[in-house]
Amino acid sequence: MGIFSRRQSATIEPTPAVGPRTPFPEGDATGVALDPALRALTGQWTIDRPHSRIGFSVRHAMVTTVRGAFTDYDSTLYFDGARPSRSRAELVIRVASVDTGVDQRDAHLIGTDFFDAHRYPEMVFRSTSTIHEGGESFRMTGDLTIRGITGPVELQLDYLGSVLDPFGIERAGFDATTTIDRTDWGLVYNQRLEAGGAMVSEKVRLQFDISAIRSVPPA
Questions:
Q1: In 76-127, where does DSSP find H-type helix?
Q2: pTM of structure
Q3: What share of the chain is helix, strand, coil (3-state, %, to 5)?
Q4: DSSP state letter for 77
Q5: From the centroid of its chain, how far is CA 139?
Q6: By C-alpha distance, which of 14, 16, 36 is closest to 26?
Q7: CB-CB contact of 164 with 3 (8 Å)
C-alpha cells in the first residue's frame, strides 16, 4: 500500500496525478464537505488481489496474536464520489483459501470446528449503507454471512488516495477495519485454559487493505 498517501492523490513518475485535491463546497446527504478528487472516482471497481489483503487477527492463549488472510475472493465495488451514500460493495470469500502460515491450523479452521468449508464454502459481505464522516473517512454498514448466519457489521473505511500506475491502470486505495464476536456467527469452538481464559479469543479483528482498480472506464 506504499504507493498511496493519505490526504493527497499520488502518482508514480512520469504518470500525472489523477487530479487536484482542494476543498469542495458541496456535500453528501450528511452535509459533510466532499473532496473534488472523490468525484473522479465515481464508477465500478474491483479489488486487485495481488496488491490487497483480506485479513484477520485474533488473540491466542491470551498472550499472543495470530494473523491470517483469505486469498481467494470475488469483489464488486461501486463508489460514488459525489454522493458517497450511494456507494456499495460486495465481497464473496472462499473460506478454504484461509492462510495463517501453518497448514495444520488452516486445516482446523476450514473444518467443522470453525468454518465448515464443505457445507459453507463462502463467506459474504454485502453493504447496506455508506456514510461520509468527513475528510477521507467513511462508515460502511453491511450484512456479513458466515456458516449460513447473517448479521450486521460496521466498517471504519478510510480513503488513502488514487493513482495512475505506469501501466495506465487507475487505482484507489482504501483501508477498512471492524471487530466482530465470532460466536455471533456460530464459530463457538474453544478450549479453556487452566489459569483461566480461552485458547482463542471470541473477538476477531477484520482488516481490509484494498488496492481497487477501475473495472469500467468512466463515461
A1: 103-110
A2: 0.81
A3: 10, 50, 40
A4: E
A5: 12
A6: 36
A7: no
